[in-house]
Amino acid sequence: MNASAPSGTFGLPYLGAYPSSYVYEGGFPPGFAWGLGTAAYQIEGGWNEDGRGPSIWDGYSGAGGTDPDPQMAARGPIVGAGAHDHSGAVACDHYHRFRADVQLMKSLGIKHYRFSVAWPRLLPNGTLEGGINEAGLHFYDELIDALLAADIQPFLTLYHWDLPSALQIDTLPGWLDRSIVRRFEDFATVCFHRWGRKVSRWATFNEPWTFVVLGYGTGSKAPGGRWAEMSANPYTAGHNVLLAHAAAVRAFRQYTAASFPPHEGARGGVDDPWGAVRPQIGITNNMDWREPLTSTEADVAAAERAREWWLGWFCDPIWHGDYPRSMREALGDRLPVFTDQEKAALVGSADFFG
């Protein structure tokens, strides 16, 4: 607290005046990883090829010429595209062009690349019982090998919003249903056993706040439609996401404990300090940072609540064992409760803050 500030107020970081110049000092720590990232549905295309099943984003965006969700259609036509070209059916055609894409990354000097695996490309109906698509596995085999051959370290994200459509139905409403936790653990385990010797950095989810609030709350992202209801659905979906994260991390650590002798890491790129480190797993969160409008205690508290309801929602259970108190007090029964066993599984279930 600023000693010169009146009682009941707090000093603001910039006191309303932002710097007009910047002097560089310091540096990044050894091993700091610079790179770039993508999402499977944003770049791959090949939406119905080689055994891939449909995802909720195919339906939401109108892949295959179907009508997109009204909120998707309301965004207007893409410049130079047709009325039904909102989807990722083709996207950047990475599914067919990945070798050239990797060479482009190499030409830019990229050393680290985070990408996601399309769940319906590996498990077309989302379940082990429905069968594993070997063609999908082969695609990611070749992508990972191409990255390593180009001295690019792969960072693998398990889920970047493209849930298999077969898991978003009336009897199994996606992330609103507790059974999705086991389904996600099964999918993650397939990935660990297939690529755990080649990939050393993993993320369970990309930006869970976004797909639970906008997908199951406002409906501005998939699945939207009848699944979108703001008062309770985001908190139910978010709770199941956290339980799925913990289950996947448990499976990951069981796999690595059995697969890697002490002090052995996954294969890394040439001259890559990350390659010598044992495989690690975490979660990638997001938020729009909030600062108080004024230095009053009420505004400072409001900014802190905003940070808790965005970042703390998915970080506090992992680092502290439960949701922020401000969420618990405001939401009451709408916010699910963790059992003691679930809290124990969540705490420490990230090897890095992402």
Question: Would you kindly provide a written description of the structure presented here, covering whatever features stand out?
Answer:
Helix 4 packs parallel to helix 6. The protein has twelve helices and seven strands. The longest helix has 27 residues, at 233-259. The protein is globular, with a radius of gyration of 22 Å. Mean pLDDT is 90; it is low at 1-7 and 268-275. Helices cover 39% and strands 8% of the residues. It has helices at 40-43, 56-61, 70-73, 94-107, 119-122, 134-149, 180-195, 208-218, 233-259, 297-319, 325-331, 340-346; strands spanning 36-37, 112-116, 153-159, 168-169, 172-173, 201-206, 280-284. With 354 residues, the chain is an alpha/beta fold.
What is the strand arrangement across the widest sheet? 1-2-3-6-7
Shape: globular
Overall pLDDT confidence: 90
H-E string = EHHHHEHHEEEHEHHEHHH
Strand content: 5-15%
Secondary structure: number of strands: 7
Which spans have pLDDT < 50 for at least 5 consecutive residues? 1-7, 268-275
User: In which range does the helix fraction lie?
Assistant: 25-40%
Q: What structural class should be given to the helix and strand makeup? A: alpha/beta
Largest sheet: 5 strands, parallel
Give the C-alpha Rg: 22 Å
Oligomer: single chain
End-to-end span in angstroms? Answer: 28 Å
Structure annotation, total helices: 12
Secondary-structure map:
Blueprint: E1 36-37, H1 40-43, H2 56-61, H3 70-73, H4 94-107, E2 112-116, H5 119-122, H6 134-149, E3 153-159, E4 168-169, E5 172-173, H7 180-195, E6 201-206, H8 208-218, H9 233-259, E7 280-284, H10 297-319, H11 325-331, H12 340-346
Parallel strand pairs: 1-2, 2-3, 3-6, 6-7
Antiparallel strand pairs: 4-5
Helix pairs in contact: 4-6, 7-9, 8-9
